[in-house]
């Protein structure tokens, strides 16, 4: 029986981590914050893959590895599989989750603004919520990247959230 | 047969929340701590981030008239050094940047200007210029990982658990240990070592999902890995009007046989209603 904890614990830690890196440590340098969040995700993905593939033979090709991420790996993490997988057969894969769990639970508190926010008007509130969400998405991108790297596939992963709450992860394999 | 509207048992509570694989939780927390150690460099600073922290102080150059506070806490990023200039009111404060020591501000504490800066931890300096922000008073705007999580978890707990208002701190502690820990971490804690006034007790955890697979290397011996838990308790209790101090007594990562947190109730703040009755 796999040990479980409440999902709020994970949500809490992930949200706080994003808030800490974006709001406290690198408030003026979102690229640095993004890199850190991605690095944390990378480590998590790397370690999780190691555990989940212990008993399996190596994957025969990239597609098999990506399918593992879409099915077994995603199920372990989010209790569902990736809804849609597309590829151009030239090293790019798009993994679409129609209702990405972490986005459905994210609460973006508009009162959490920096102190020198006086010159910002209310229209930027939406931007900052979008920015926080995109920062949050660096974490699952890092997880996917870490997982694939551990399976021997070097790649870059970006997220596309133009269609919330659906989220697409674009994996570009480096040849 | 327990009444249908009564509080749920710990197991029922845990079964009623959405749950995830504990490994995801454990590994995410571990990766975050590791990254914090890399970025902040000082173990003490990481401890503070996990539980409590100073406000992050930045001063938008060149004027600092937003600094109308008497006390500004300063977050120090390990290893950096610099000067912090404080102006405002009718005085000026200047930081003495010590060589690897604490930083201080001298200022005129006139009408709201200047002020003293709480020293950062030993061995750190203050990042100057755009790295340093002016914070509010010590209470306002404090952001802490554990504390923040706690303030949110308590809402979920009260919504799902159906517990009635606790009569005293003893009951509160029991509820946290049996129901709170169970609901979120899937494990129960035991409450022991009550003091004579009933304001101070220990929570003992034998099984802690946060530390599965974790070993502390020698260079991190000062790290309070589970500090997020003490922050969560503090944050949660503060939301129900109890101010507490939480310290770690035993830590299995350091070789002890269990995890023990000492929780001391320092102040019970009566709830304030936002509206006056006679308006």
UniProtKB/TrEMBL annotation, chain A:
Pfam families referenced in this protein's UniProt entry, alphabetically: TRAPP
Note the InterPro entries from the entry: NO_sig/Golgi_transp_ligand-bd, TRAPP_component, TRAPPC6/Trs33
**Any one biological process term the GO annotation gives:** endoplasmic reticulum to Golgi vesicle-mediated transport
**What Gene3D superfamilies would the database entry show?**
Trafficking protein particle complex subunit 3 (3.30.1380.20)
Q: Which CDD domains match?
A: TRAPPC6A_Trs33 (cd14944)
Give the record's GO CC terms.
Answer: cis-Golgi network; trans-Golgi network; TRAPP complex
Q: Which superkingdom, per the lineage?
A: Eukaryota
Question: Which family is this protein grouped under?
Answer: Belongs to the TRAPP small subunits family. BET3 subfamily.
User: Under what name is this protein listed?
Assistant: Trafficking protein particle complex subunit 6B
Native organism: Leersia perrieri
UniProtKB/TrEMBL annotation, chain B:
Q: Establish whether keyword Metal-binding is in the entry.
A: no
Which family does the entry's similarity section mention? Belongs to the TRAPP small subunits family. BET3 subfamily.
- Known Gene3D superfamilies for this protein? Trafficking protein particle complex subunit 3 (3.30.1380.20)
Q: What is its main location?
A: endoplasmic reticulum
Record protein name field: Trafficking protein particle complex subunit
Keywords of the record = Endoplasmic reticulum, ER-Golgi transport, Golgi apparatus, Transport
Q: Which InterPro entries match?
A: Bet3, NO_sig/Golgi_transp_ligand-bd, TRAPP_component
Keyword hit for Endoplasmic reticulum: yes
Example GO BP: Golgi vesicle transport
Cellular component GO terms, alphabetical = endoplasmic reticulum; Golgi apparatus; TRAPP complex
State the organism of origin. Leersia perrieri
Subcellular compartments: Endoplasmic reticulum; Golgi apparatus, cis-Golgi network
Question: One Pfam family this chain carries?
Answer: TRAPP
